[in-house]
Amino acid sequence: MGLSHAAIIGAHHDVDLISVCDTSSFVLDAFKKFSAIKTYTDYQKMIDEVPLDFAIVATPTKFHHQIVKFALDKGLHIFCEKPFSLNTAQGKELVDLAAKKLLVNQVGFHNHFIGTFRELKRLLDKNVIGEIVHFTGEAYGPVVTKEKGGTWRSKPEEGGGCLYDYASHVINLIQEIIGRPEKICGTLLKKFYSKDVEDGVYSLLKLKSGLTGALLVNWSDETYRKMSTSITVFGKKGKIICDATEIKIYLKEPFLSEKLEKGWTIKYITDFALPVNFYLRGEEYSAQLDYFIDCIKEKKQAIYNSFEQALYTDQVIELIIKDAKNY
Amino acid sequence: MQKIINMEKVLLGDNQFFAVSHLSDERSRAQAIRFKDDDSIIRVIDQAIELGIMTFMCTTHDRIANICQHIRSNPARYNGFKIFPCMPYAHKYANAITELGIIGTIKQYVPGNIFSTFTKGGVAFLGKDFIKLMEILIDSEMKMFKGIDTPVIFIQNVVVDMLLGLKMFEVFREYDQYIRKKYNAEPGYITMNMPALLDALNSVGIDKPIICSSINKSGFRMSGGKEIYEKYLNERDFKPIAMQVLAAGALKPAEAIEYLGKFPKLESVLFGASSKSHLKETKELIEHYL
What is the pLDDT of residue B124? Predict the structure, then answer.
């Protein structure tokens, strides 16, 4: 269970949070003592016993396939945390199953619910910086900053490592905002502190359009207080640097229809934040679940963060792992 | 009898010292460089005191312990100076939980060994006494403030809003009682969901709570919208503190503070500034409009 997901769903006006499932008796005891929410340690039993419309799967990645498959078979709409799958054949099975059963399916790549990244996509679609010739996607943060630790995040077979945990966000942003990578032209997966997983991911990506760019990710950088993700796009007529807090646009010439002047324009998240009814750790976490619930209510499929999009990210991750073996 | 304190109108915040900028990651980094030494933080606090700002509202960040030591060592200079602690410093725990898990985090941060405090079988027993655990964690966070006047003690929004979403309102009441009893202080709550929190606190018998939340002309971080916030500020009985009044820098100080003047019940404004001129300007605006 994700505690934050439970809190956001618990506060949602249109949803009753009925039950949670976790392996930690510590967490479940808190629910038993302070709430009326039913607790389970066996997800199959929970899904069989409780009448549910949807489930949120926020477990270590290696459990996603079995849980999501079981829940889809029982007819539940699913919001699953990222990364989606550790095995793209299994991921494909889930994409197909959700499509066949017409169930709403979404994965928690929350950056798409940050207003600045949406604005970046809108500006690129308007061709504000002309023909794009290069991009970089970056993420830095302080997850592993010393040589110890031992949760599932340090186990490659469970979806640990900087590539699955951090870089997946950046790959997903690149694929949905700029274009889908289809070839990897060189990769360094570097260990700084971890023994079994990479702490840094440095990879050159070639998109279907032929455009190339770089992926630069390091989760062992304590000069960042928390995860900081950014996309820089370089065009023949200008450049845009976008992160979760601001979007900086440099233009060689004014772009009148967007009221953008020559030189630098800086726009802030305060103008783009998606309005939410409940806030916990960032608008994007509530906004993505609000969207998921809206899709269920309106019986429509998610445009943002579908299983299919998340599977594509997993496929790029597989390509990167394969490519890294060459170096 | 419950202790009722009169809060000052102007409270000095600490985000600027710890590289927290809601507007710009780049600005965060610049701040981290500027406030690398404790002396640079103390200098701003001293400037605030010169201007008559006598309350510092701060997280239980490791570096605050050094600031507290400085204050204790200079009792004459800091006579009458108050700190409103805000706990926990969430990133400390969030990073630890990612690395060590929940139980590992408790082991790391609870002084001594929690599992010897609970002799009846460690985790299993602990699992049934959350309130005791909360009290131990509060005491551990409060250690750094020993000997300093802390008339209001806040819980941070990450914890408040988590409990709010999970509807574990009883925990608020336990917190409220413990802070009053153990520290003879008034409990305060920081939230990004003020209207829902006030309803929740009232529902477990907590009346007239001190609630610190985003209140600004742009509606930034005012969950559910500006209108319901304004309605609660005008109609409900509580002690509101406004934070993020500049909407992370999107508003000019004069228009931002003028907006706050619409709410006579507003008790205090929390703001962070790095320079004396900025402190002075904002303080004068607050005193003019509030």
Answer: 44
